[in-house]
Amino acid sequence: MATHKFIISGFGGQGVMSMGMMLAYAGMIEGKEVTWLPSYGPEMRGGTANCNVVISDKPISSPVITKATSVVAMNLPSLKKFEDNVLKNGNIFVNSSLVNKKISRKDIKDYYISANDIALELGNDKAANMIMLGAIIDKTNVVNLDSVKQVLEKLFKNKKAVIPTNIKALNKGTMI
Amino acid sequence: MAKTLMKGNEAFAAAAIKGGCRYFFGYPITPQNELPEYMSRELPKAGGCFLQAESEIAAINMVYGAACAGARVMTSSSSPGIALKQEGISFLASAELPCVIINVSRAGPGIGGIQPGQADYYQSTRGGGNGDYQVIVYAPASIQEAVELTANAFETADYYRNPVMILGDGMIGQMMEPVELRAPKKRELPPKIWALTGTRGQRSHNTIKSLALEPDDLEEVNLKLKAKYDVIRKNEVQYEAFHLEDAEIVFVAYGTVSRIVKAVIEELSSLNIKAGLIRPITLWPFPFEVFDTLSSKTKCVMSIEMSLGQMVDDVKIAVKGRVPVEFYGRSGGNIPSPEAIVEKTKEILGGAE
Lengths: 176, 353
Description:
CATH class of chain A: Alpha Beta
Largest sheet of chain A: 6 strands, mixed
CATH architecture of the largest domain in chain B: 3-Layer(aba) Sandwich
CATH topology of the largest domain in chain B: Rossmann fold
Number of helices of chain B: 12
Distance between the termini of chain B: 52 Å
Shape of chain A: globular
Helix content of chain B: 25-40%
CATH architecture of chain A: 3-Layer(aba) Sandwich
Oligomer: heterodimer
Helix content of chain A: 25-40%
Number of strands of chain B: 14
């Protein structure tokens, strides 16, 4: 495995931080080197938020990502801000439920995931980040899906009722 | 013990408890708030006391009190909050009181911003308070290193009866990495017979003070401190030397910036430019001696900082004019990008030919 560098971005409240954290956590369970670096600031629900996640077999030099192997844009401002940060032949994941714009670059792979619509169909709009996470894992193979399921078991060990919904969304995301 | 994924600020706190810290006094400030938050939750469980003071000045003086009583005590803050604590830090150093101070630094000057910065290098290493004194300053580059330095800091502080500072920045405070918490490396520590623990009528009373009105008496205090600092300079220097052999250019960077520089070194190697890194782990005492081992192939030394040039002063002292010393930095909460450092390097090496 090479080094995966993800910039995951969206509105505060869309679960972009937890999406990144779950990826990092899953990488750690698999014995990989991981870093998770959030943007932080006077931010609130509805403001923009992003995190940088690096997952690698080698010790990670910089936790700061300027050139990403994958960018995840959960909203339009994120797409505008980070489209240029994708490495050539890298991936961009666009939440097409909220972004009705195609990317302008031709040298990267683009995936349009209607994360909110699919989550709504499953009965929980809040699970849009898990739909996206499933899609990311399916397309990049950065970690195994089972590792993320283990992460969910750990994170929600005192709130087990929410685990099935999240796993359902995660599985759905891998089938797009 | 298995690794856990921890945020830097929480890891600092967990490591402090592991290192024997039982008293914490602090006042909130971004970007270090998860540290006192963790302490408020976890320190009482370890039999300790967390107290949110009414101000930074109160907090550092509570540290003074607890240290006088022989307790393992810590405070944390961020740049302008650490500035407020300087009077207390000078008093602690003068009275030879052990304690640990964590600075999760942000951009300044003044109230500045809340994004990461390294512009507290002078404040930390030159004595932010008054008088001839030093605090031992550690600069971790990863969260694993942060927990080790923090846990060991209490032993070091007790051993030298001196304040120890951990200088991180907002980035290391906010990021998450896998960590393994380990017990500190024990030092041979004498009992704290100087502490104010009550005489119980069994001994004469101890006095701890920083006031000495007679010049000769005060000079004696200063010389005693100086002798201690010389021992620290001799025994406590820590640094990482990375790819120094054959390096055309040697970078100097500490903390999170050193990691960006390691990415730069990889990138430069793909361009056939040999680069190395000296990463001070102790900012005071600074690792001057390692600069004497630089290869004859080294044409230039460049300090990279999240400031407009502070550590570069120590780098110049260390290089002793043997090769040019260059500088690249960003400020205001901006992080130097690998691309910009690569460009600057190409410009310098190109110009030297």
